Amino acid sequence: MSNVYFKIHPDMELYIQDGDPLIDSYEVWSQLFETNENIDEFFANRYIKYEYHPD
């Protein structure tokens, strides 16, 4: 059995439905990544550097 460790990161993603009626349903997915980066480096490289900040 392998050793698996989990850490809770304080940031999260949130998606809000646009309010229009659904055609079929919502799609939910999860992503699993393997990296040599620590959690803060991974989060910054994967998410923070692509944040959209409208004017």
Characterise this structure:
By secondary structure, the chain is low in regular secondary structure. The chain has one domain. Helices cover 15% and strands 0% of the residues. It has 1 helix and no strands. The longest helix is centred in the C-terminal third of the chain and has 8 residues. It is flat and about 45 Å long. The model has no long low-confidence stretch (mean pLDDT 77).
What's a concise summary of this model?
The protein has one helix spanning about 40-45. The protein is mostly loops and about 55 residues long.
Question: What is the number of beta strands?
Answer: 0
Structural class: little secondary structure
What is the H/E string?
H
What is the mean predicted local confidence, pLDDT?
A: 77
User: How many domain units?
Assistant: 1
Structural shape: flat
Helix share bin: 10-25%
User: In this structure, how is the largest beta sheet organized?
Assistant: none
The poorly predicted ranges are none
Rg, rounded, reads 16 Å
Question: Approximately what portion of the residues adopt beta-strand conformation?
Answer: under 5%
Q: In whole angstroms, how far apart are the ends?
A: 50 Å
Number of helices: 1
